[in-house]
Inverse folding.
């Protein structure tokens, strides 16, 4: 188990595209850190820099306090699992898994012991003599995992390892990965664009956009308290609903005024300053629209149902309210119909305020 | 079962018929040579369209094999192929590998340089003078140097290497493999189909080459089989054989020579064919 630190890491490609900008990250020993963000946000480039597959333009990467960004990949004591498995198709499962140990001139008996240990953990014992083409997608990805764990590296790197699996296998492998992390207690960096994987796997999540760190925190903290509009919109499915309006000072409190409704709010000026009057956006999670009024502070939104998505345990209702599309997550219920008018209640406690210009969060009391 | 339309069936019939005719036009010259080489004088001199031999007369073969150094020429040809082809394939792959890697400095100018040699050569006289100066004239090493790295083959192999996913190279690097190790243990085994293809190209090139033997070799024992063929067929050496084997038609001698030079190479193809295996990359990656 080892810790990993990235200090002011920047990557500018030859075509002057800045993939990663002044990125700082501290991963504790044994931690499962997930880098999440949309395509092109720099998460895979960051992983490649940690692995040594891409050079840094500036900054420093340390593993256990030792600078590693000057070392070739093989000397960093890391292992990587790729999205497309990257197994060697002309080698058996056993040879694939033992490849790195063979290159380190390990004795055959030691390689065999280590490979069998890994195969037992991953339930691959019966497939060691097979070639990758004779395995299913899930099994191949387990071989790729096996290839990583035989070496017992300081840091595991995962580059969207579940993206190529079907939905069912992805769920199974997600659980397996979680168990594997608990069992090995290893430091793992996991890159994904899938926020479900990020939420379920990560001890902490690092949300990236356009090469910059947006927010790094525990999954639920990021979900409940997004630092800016981007994080609020990216984390959560269906995504957070945003509505535009204005904050106006009313003496001892502020009032949010929009086309939809008016809401009284108390602003925590110690965090957000004392002059908050102006254009804002509010964010409401789909599950924070209520069918019934919870208390007198609630505000009502009326909309017309466009689409209903019954998910079994719950239902997503897409509605249009004053020319704006909103989505609400409600209990499974057959009483709604497309075209129906529906009233939903919003509570200030479940509403997140963002500055319309900067996109940054405005904190409330 | 899906019923095909009349137009579709008509297309199949026409298509298959045309392909059969095309195949026959390819095959018939071989058959013609074989029949002619085995035919007696009376039959051969009739000329016309032969489908099968009326007799089995091996005199033409005896005549050709009686030519001095012919077997040595055959041996030279076989050795030329056996030695030159593997070395050529290896060096071609070795040249193609760095050209396929994006981290190679000046990769594009280097590639254009290779491409240039495909379009323009130094010319026969400068090459002759070069071989003369480095002592390759009348030296069997010239067979090795000729076509050692063909630009066209380099391009083929480079393109194949570029289709091997980058992640496999990266995985090997992280596993601790050096570039040499990756080249020998990952890229070469995964590139068997293209290596077999260029091996076949090179085999045919080396087997058919006669011009280099004619201009660079002066000793008869160093000449390859194809040069003997050229002498018999073009330089009228069949007349000498006819002086010994009186009455043997020149067509039969030429045909027998052609058969002797063509048949060995036909046996190579089935061995190469099995390497054209589809799907060698299957399974290593999610497509």
């Amino acid at each position: 188990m080892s810790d990993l630190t990235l200090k002011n890491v920047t990557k500018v490609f030859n075509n002057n595209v800045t993939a990663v900008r002044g990125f700082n990250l501290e991963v504790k020993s044994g931690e499962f850190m997930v880098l999440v963000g949309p395509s092109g946000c720099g998460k895979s480039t960051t992983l490649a820099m940690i692995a040594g597959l891409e050079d840094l333009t500036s900054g420093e990467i340390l593993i256990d306090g030792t600078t590693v960004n000057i070392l070739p990949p093989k000397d960093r004591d890391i292992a990587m699992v790729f999205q497309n498995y990257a197994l060697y198709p002309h080698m058996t499962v056993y040879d694939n898994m033992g490849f790195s140990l063979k290159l380190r001139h390990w004795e055959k008996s030691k390689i065999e012991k280590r490979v069998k240990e890994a195969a037992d953990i991953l339930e691959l014992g019966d497939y060691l003599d097979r070639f990758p083409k004779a395995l299913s997608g899930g099994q191949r990805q387990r071989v790729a995992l096996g290839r990583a764990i035989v070496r017992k590296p300081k840091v595991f790197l995962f580059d969207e390892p579940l993206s190529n699996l079907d939905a069912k296998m992805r769920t199974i492998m997600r659980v397996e990965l979680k168990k594997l992390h608990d069992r090995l207690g290893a430091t793992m960096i996991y890159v994904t664009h899938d926020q479900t994987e990020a939420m379920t796997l990560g001890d902490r999540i690092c949300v990236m956009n356009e090469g910059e760190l947006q927010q790094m925190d525990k999954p639920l903290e990021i979900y409940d308290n997004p630092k800016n509009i981007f994080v609020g919109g990216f984390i959560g499915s269906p995504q957070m609903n945003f509505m535009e309006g204005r904050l106006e000072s009313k003496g001892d409190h502020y009032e949010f005024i929009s086309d939809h409704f008016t809401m009284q709010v108390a602003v925590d000026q110690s965090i957000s300053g004392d002059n908050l009057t102006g254009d804002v956006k509010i964010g409401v999670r789909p599950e924070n629209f209520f069918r019934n009024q919870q208390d007198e502070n609630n505000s009502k939104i009326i909309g017309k149902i466009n689409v209903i998505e019954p998910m079994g345990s719950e239902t997503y209702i897409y509605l249009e309210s004053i020319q704006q599309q909103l989505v609400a997550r409600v209990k499974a219920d057959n009483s709604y119909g497309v075209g129906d008018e529906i009233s939903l209640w919003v509570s200030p406690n479940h509403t997140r305020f963002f500055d319309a210009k900067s996109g940054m969060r405005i904190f409330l009391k | 079962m899906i019923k095909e339309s009349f137009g579709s069936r008509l297309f199949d019939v026409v298509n298959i018929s045309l392909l059969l005719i095309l195949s026959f036009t390819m095959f018939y010259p071989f058959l013609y040579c074989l029949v002619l080489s085995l035919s007696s004088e009376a039959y051969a001199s009739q000329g016309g369209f032969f489908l099968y031999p009326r007799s089995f007369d091996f005199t033409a073969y005896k005549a050709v094999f009686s030519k001095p150094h012919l077997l040595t020429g055959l041996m030279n040809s076989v050795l030329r192929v056996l030695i030159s082809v593997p070395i050529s394939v290896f060096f071609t792959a070795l040249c193609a590998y760095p050209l396929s890697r994006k981290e190679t400095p000046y990769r594009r100018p280097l590639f254009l340089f290779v491409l240039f040699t495909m379009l323009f050569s130094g010319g026969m006289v400068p090459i002759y003078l070069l071989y003369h100066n480095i002592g390759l004239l009348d030296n069997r090493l010239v067979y090795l140097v000729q076509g050692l790295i063909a630009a066209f083959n380099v391009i083929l192999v480079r393109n194949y290497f570029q289709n091997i996913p980058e992640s496999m190279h990266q995985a090997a690097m992280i596993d601790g493999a050096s570039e040499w190790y990756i080249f020998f243990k990952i890229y070469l085994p995964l590139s068997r189909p293209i290596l077999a293809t260029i091996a076949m190209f090179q085999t045919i090139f080396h087997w058919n080459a006669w011009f280099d033997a004619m201009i660079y070799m002066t000793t008869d024992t160093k000449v390859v089989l194809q040069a003997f063929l050229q002498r018999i067929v073009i330089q009228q050496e069949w007349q000498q054989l006819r002086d010994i084997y009186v009455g043997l038609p020149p067509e039969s001698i030429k045909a027998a020579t052609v058969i002797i030079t063509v048949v060995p190479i036909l046996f190579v193809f089935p061995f190469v064919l099995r390497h054209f295996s589809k799907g060698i990359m299957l399974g290593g990656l999610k497509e």
In short: Residues 167-184 of chain A form the longest helix (18 residues). DSSP finds nine helices and 21 strands in chain A. The two ends of chain A are 40 Å apart (CA to CA).
